[in-house]
Structures are given as structure tokens and as C-alpha cells.
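The instructor's notes for this session suggest beginning with a concrete chain rather than abstract definitions. Hand out the sequence below and ask the class to guess, before any prediction is shown, which regions might be ordered.
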Amino acid sequence: MPEDRLQHFLSLLSHLGWGLNPSSRPQPLGGRRRDDLASARWLALSLPDSQSLIVLAIAGRLPALGEAYKRYEDFEPGHRAVLRALRDQNISGHYLLLIGENEAQLLDLELEDVLIDAVSRAEINERLLPLLDLQALARGSLSAFPRKQLRQRARELADWTQLWSTRIGGRMDLSTGMMARLFEWLHLARVAERNGSGPRYEQCFEDFAATARGTSARRFLEDRFRPLHGQWFLLQESSLKLMLDVVQQAGKDGILDDCLASYAMLSSGKFTAEVFAEAFADDELRHRSWRSSVTGELPEELRTEEDEERDWLQEPVTLDLDRAGTVVLLRTIDVLTEKVRGAALDQLTALERGERPGQQLDLLALEPEDIAPQEAARHVLKNLLTVRTADPLRAALARLLMLTRACEWHRRFEAREVRFPRLRLDVETPAPAEMVMEEMPPAAMN
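After discussion, reveal the predicted structure:
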């Protein structure tokens, strides 16, 4: 049955200009599977832009997405089962086309976006097949197809977090601050898992829903929180024991299992520093961030054209989050990390040549510490960047963004098992007179 559906769809593609190899035979998804995907058949197709499309036909109907969207989720468990099966069989591609009884769904695998959900043959003909015309593909029909905007991803993640924070906090009579901390830990644990900054587990967040009935959510989270607090020091400025007590209490009546099962249905594309910044900032900070993104603002210490005169390994930078916004914070981390990595590579080259790194003429100057290029982001957080704010909630957001961005850089550098430093966060309340003078419009001052 699935093989017949796949062959029928391949015949449709042949009418759209595809020169398919007749010897290509659909493959079973798994050797001895006993689940609903046991009879599924798949085939990998090369796209004109050097990307690939996995076409997968399954028995029965495809998982419906309407109810998932109402829960602020991106998938149904059936989608996660398919993605897990592909991963287990080392089947990789850029796009996934699911074919069911009379419907089809097209997914961007990297972002985990559902691009098209065609629920009838008419929709397949009108919405899906024109995208897969070979000439349209050569013009970039898939790469140019609209994805979710950052603001939409952020809104969905914020709504999901608020929904479950209210459910768990109301059931356990916990404060808003405690629930915000729990979900900050949860988001950071998933970021670390996705970006390779934490330990490897047999079961990841995306797989939890598949085995939620036989898995303790408390045990699942304990396995992640302990190393992220102690060994990697991602979960800073809070009590591990207190958080584990909260997790244990929430796990007693099953609500934590339900929460993590829902969490597994969120797209991994939502767990980025940019999405967190948009999702969890207050309105004023979000407005300042938007303005900074337009002006391309940077801290004063980085507004220099004489880069060669700056010691990128030692000279610190202070950022006022309340004035600058989150966009400037992330941009500052990126600029400093790139510069530190370049300086570290220069330092490594100098050492290999037997030269003294740093300023050669200043014999009294301290030599900079040896820095591995792949640990540039860690050096920035440890020694160079101080973030100042007058709002404890913004300080918590800054902590989340700094650690998330560092995880992303570690993934880019393929750095593993890096222990994060204590962040340089100053929570200060500026003098009221200064705030009045800074914020008051010129007309009011006259």
C-alpha cells in the first residue's frame, strides 16, 4: 500500500520534468519495526540546488495538525515518530515529503517547519505539485517558500511557556518567578542538548513523548539538570536542590509528564537566542531592541575602526541592557567572539613560531592567557563582557541569552564539554535624577 502510493507520486513527478531512475526502488523505513511505520517506504531524491528531498509514504492517514496548533505545538506524536525513525536509520535530507491516504505534508527538516499541509488531492495538485515542478525548483521554489517569521515562533513559544507555567504553578501554588526559573532551566537544557554543549543521552527531549508512559519526567529532568548545573554550570544563580524538589512535586500527579510530552512537539527551530529574546523580553526592551537592529548599534568600546590597536583578549566591554536592548547584546557577543577567536588563532600561530605573543615592546605587560580558539565564547563571558541592568527580570533574560548564544558558538566551533563561567551581570538601580534627564524629551526640559 505505501509502496503503491510512493510509486504513484513518483509518476506525478515524472510529468513535472523529473528524470527519475527507473531502477530506484523504495526502501523500508526500518528492518524489523513493529510500530505504525513498519510498512512505510521511502526514497531520497536529489534537488537541483544540491539539496535532497526524502519522500516517505506511510499507511493510513497523516497526523492532523489542527489540534497541535491550538496547543501552541508544531507537531503531533506521529511526526516525531517519523523524524526519530529517520534519525535512527541515519536517513538525512533537507526536506521531507510525507504521503498519506489522500494528503501530503512538506517539512523543512532543518527548521522543523511544516511548509505545506495538503489535506486533499485537490490541495496536492494546487499547492504542492507546482512547487515540485523541476523548473520551479531550479528557480528556488523551495528555498524561497515562506517559513515562520521569528516573531511568530517567539509568540508561540511565549504562549506555550505561559500556558504550562500557569497550569503547573496553579496546581502547586508556586510563584511566577519560580515557574519562570523552572522553564529557563528547561529551555537551557534543550539548547545544550541540541547544540552539543551537554552530555549525550539515549532519549532526547524530542523523543520524550514516545515513551512518556514508561518514563518518569522527574528522572528525565534530573538526569539533565544535574550535569548542566555542576559539570557544565549552565544553570547559574539558583539552587539545584530547590529546583529538583519542584520537579519531584510536579511529577507526582503526572502534569510534568504531560508538559514534557507537549514540549517534545515543539520545533527545535524555536530554541535559539533570537527567538528567546523576542519571546521573553518586555515591551519596552523589545522596542529598544527593534530600534537598535535598525541603527546597527554597538557598545562604545567596539565603535572603533582601529581594530589592530585593541587587545581583544583582555580589554573588557560593559553593556547597558536597558538602553541597548537584546539585539545589541547578541551582536556584541558575536563581535567579541569572532575577534577573540581571531586573536587566539594569531596567538597560537605566534607560539608555534616561538614568538612572544602580545605587545613585543612592553616587557612588563602580562602575557594573555592561552585560549583555545574553539573556547572563544567562553572567554568572552568569563573575562570581557559585563551586562548591566536595573531590572532583575531583564538580568534573568540576559543570562538566558548569553548562555544560549555561547552554546550556539560552541556548536559552530564543535567544542564539547566546556564548563561555562559565572556570568558578569550587574543589577543596579540608577539614580532617579539621571533617569529623568536621560528619558525626558528636549521640549519638556525647556
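Then share the key points. Residues 326-352 form the longest helix (27 residues). The first strand starts at residue 27 and ends at 28.
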